[in-house]
Amino acid sequence: MRIKTISLFFIIMPMLFLCGCSDSSQLHQKIIVQGIGVDKENEGYKITVQSFDYQNTTSEEGPNVKVISLNGESVMSALNTISKRTGLEPLYSQNIMIVIGEDAAKDGINKIIDFFIRHYESRPNVKICIARGKAEDVLSCKSGENFIQSKDISDLIDDKSDIVHFVGALHDVNSQPSATALSITQGETPTIIEDGIAVFYGDTLSGFCDENESLGIKLINGRSKGENYLLKLDDGRKVTCVINDSTSKIKTYISDVPEFTVNLDLDIGIFEIEKLNEGDMNGKENLIKNQLIANINDLFRRTIYKVIMEYGSDIFNFGKILMNKNPKYFKGIEDWGRMIKSCRYNINTNIDISVTGTEVTY
Amino acid sequence: MTKTKKAVITVPQLFSMLFISRLIVSMTYSLRLSNSTSMWDHILSAGISFIVTFLLVIPVYSLFSSEKKFDIVDTSYNLMGKAGTIITFIYIIYYIFVCSYTLSVFIDFVSNVINPPISTVALSIAVILSSWYGASRGIEGLARTSGIILFVIGLSIFFIIISLMGSLEATNYQPLLYNGTSSMWNGVLYMISRTSCIPAMAMLIPKAKGSIKKGILFWNVSIYALIACLIVLIVGALGSFLDTQLFPVYTAASIAKLSSLQHMDALYLGVWTMGVFVKISLFLMISAECTNKVFKIKNRSGSLFIISLIVFILSMCFGKDYIYKFISNNMFLLSITVLTAFIIPLILLIFKLIKNRKEVKA
Question: Is A2 part of any domain?
Answer without folding.
Answer: no
